[in-house]
Amino acid sequence: MRNGKGMIGKPIVAYDSGEEFRTIVDLIFDQESNQLLGFLVDEGGWFSSALVLPLTNIQAIGADAVIVASRDAIDSAQEFPAMQSILERDNILKGTRIMTLDGRDLGTMVDLYFDDTSGAIEGYEVSGGIFADAYSGRSFVPAPDTLKIGEDIAFVPSETADLMQEQVGGIRGAMQTASGKVQEMAQFTGKKAQEAAQFTGEKFQEATTFAGTSFTNAVVDPEEQETFVLGKAAQKAVETTDGITLIQEGQVVNSSHILAARNLNMINELYHATGGRVTERLGERLSGAVTGLGANIGIEQAQGRRVNRMIFTPEGSVVAVEGQIVTPRVIERAKTHHQEQALLEAVGLTTGDALRVTSSNVGQHVKDGAKGIWEQVKETASNLQEHGTQAIEDRRIKGALGRPVTRVILDRNDEVILNVGELITHQAIAISRDADVLEVLLDSVYTETPDLSLDDLRAPESGKAALN
Predict the structure, then answer these.
(1) Own/partner pairs for 394-402, CB < 8 Å, 24+ apart?
(2) Which CATH code of 3.30.200, 1.20.58, 3.30.2310, 3.90.105 fits the domain covering 392-457?
(3) 375-394 pLDDT tens trace
């Protein structure tokens, strides 16, 4: 949902050329169908027709610009009879008073809100009127099927005023006195916290028996692990399976340690050695899931309540308007954009309030949802374990190529593939793989920064791509 006032002055950008070539001047609104048809971009003059942008020609409405396919998206208003007729009537919405057919003043129109896909008008922001908020002086008039705009007054059906009244009898009837409510909420919150703690504890115990590296990578991305460890001191020493020390206790992790750990597939060990706690991260995910699930389950209790502040999506689209009464459409929009928690807070409800009057099976819903998150983590870890072996090996090979080996690499016939200090080549990789000693080779890569001269580091012959 977008507001009309926010559209005026917004630049229009052609996708094919990237050119910003027009700006929106005004909205073209059909009062008979309560529909936004498009936008005026040039009012025209004595010798030129007005130019318009039909809503159907818009690819996207962003926070900073309107995107169209090309300059051809804009055309003369004469090509669109419905819009031309509206422009000739010259109805002005802003400043028009809205009144019901039985004479109730709903306020003076300040802005309108429309669905940015269909163009359907969802309602009008008004100033003053019988439902004006005591603090802001504004309220929200839901759009009727038709709006009859006169010279000074726009008339709406009498039922519109009924839709503007907060319908919260059901939930208010379920609420008790303030002291009783606080006590009951404390019990409710405590019970849910206890259930969450018990469930999380069970999962942490299960985590300790699950495949270590894959589990860690499923919860914390390896790149995030590398970012975490850089510059931190190791709380314990980390050794390879061959007993070679990767990092000493108290030593600060640098890029060389990370490179070596990456080649040895030991970022997981380095992460834990520097204080990384996968169980805490899993707990955060489970806790967030419980909160989100609670909001999703209880969101229906927002229906009929008045929104006390604007709610936006991260992209800048409007979910709900201050003063608006929550309808099923608003709830669906909040779910689509994952703004359930924000909507509950905007109508003065906590997740606990909503859950308490929603269902006696809330605890089971929350626990089932948390279990679902846990199963996702396990499935991701299993997939990483099953399908990640080749990717890990490829990364280790790339890190090993061009580096010397720290021991003699022998094939099954005890013939030397590489001697100590010789460089790992693609041929050495292939021979080692055929001889089933590739793992030995990759575990023998020299990863320290050598204190050698340039001549010592050179291969015995010039490269075929080297300049003569």
Answers:
(1) 395/262, 395/263, 396/263, 396/264, 396/265, 396/442, 397/429, 397/442, 399/259, 399/262, 399/263, 399/445, 400/263, 400/424, 400/429, 400/441, 400/442, 400/445, 401/425, 401/426, 401/429
(2) 3.90.105
(3) 655 555 555 455 556 666 78
